[in-house]
Amino acid sequence: MVTNALSVDVEDWFQVGAFENTISRTDWDGLEHRVEGNTDAVLALFGESSVKATFFTLGWVAKRYPALIRRIADAGHEVASHGWDHKRVFMLSPEQFRADIDSAKKALEDASGAKVTGYRAPSFSIDTRTPWAHAVLAEQGYLYSSSIAPIAHDHYGWPDAPRGAFKPVEGSELIELPITIAQFFGKEITAGGGFFRLLPGQVTGDAVRAANSREQPAVFYFHPWEIDPGQPRVKNAPLKSRLRHYARLGAMAGKLKTLIGNHQWGRMDVIAAREAEKLA
Prior knowledge:
This protein is an alpha/beta fold and 280 residues long. The chain has helices spanning 35-49, 59-64, 66-74, 94-112, 133-139, 193-198, 201-213, 239-246, 252-262, 268-279, and strands spanning 4-10, 54-57, 78-81, 118-119, 144-145, 175-176, 181-184, 187-190, 219-222, 265-266.
């Protein structure tokens, strides 16, 4: 049986890409923080299911909640980087990106007591606009990235990218593990996040089975705020953003339990090492 990659993008409800033009970063510290409680709920859910995962976490969160990062690591999960404060990679220069991932890595390692070797770009923002990004990750000592969505989407996407593990930097051992793509009535979507919340669970389940039939691990993701129907509402955000963010939050935990129970899951670093052996 193929082991699939289970991943969590640890950010708070106000840090998402959908609200980046509505909520200023300067206001973040004054808002209600729910990331610690929500992530603890995810840890409990994983504990009930006896499954291990990777938590791609913002340095911003690690700085404010170091005990949470330690709890993630102590539970046997991988702590990996989601950058410092959710700036999309294509909004940064190579020098700014280097500083961003370096500061996040240090904060996460200090909090977790473990080496950070994995990275996921906020909003899957490594694409054709950032041909230098993987090389910077390799220079900074990362062993793998899961930062590409090989589809066309209004917020992200690199449609021509490979759909399985590949080495993006010649002469480097860095592995890229793109997010798995699902099909819904002929439309390609990412396996996880809002699409998983909004659509029948079978859509993602079929994508996992399709990847496994090719002897490939599926890569699935979600956010802690997605299991929190009681989070504050951003009333001045665009309607499309509000629909994407708040729809079916109450259904998410149950759908996750079903998906986890139907397939075999593990940490991204373990899957990345196995894929690296195949590419050697």
